[in-house]
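Order emerges. As here.
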Amino acid sequence: MLASLDDAGSVTFAEPYDSDGFYMTVQAPEPGDADASWEIEIGRWEPDDPDEAYGDHTSATGSSVICCALRVAPSAEEIVHLLKSVDEKPLLLAEWAEAPVGADLAGTKLVVTQRYGS
């Protein structure tokens, strides 16, 4: 799995191998922004050329699919659980991406708060 920590620790990006183009980000709110929340997003790489299939594409752009906004910061253990879960079962991201607003992500306490696109 590819994982990185960006923006001085405010965003964690995880893209497990064999995830069918899905990835997950965990974003902490900016320090001092009392109205912001933690966000867990599931996104997917979409080929830039609509005639190319995923996997056969030459370039792609990431698109957010769902978001789980959290008013309370997740514990380090919860974040580790998410990362381990998608590393052990990469297609879990595809399953989670199908969840409607208000549904729990299977195996977690996260609730989908927003869907993007169609």
User: Anything to note?
Assistant: The chain has a mean pLDDT of 86.
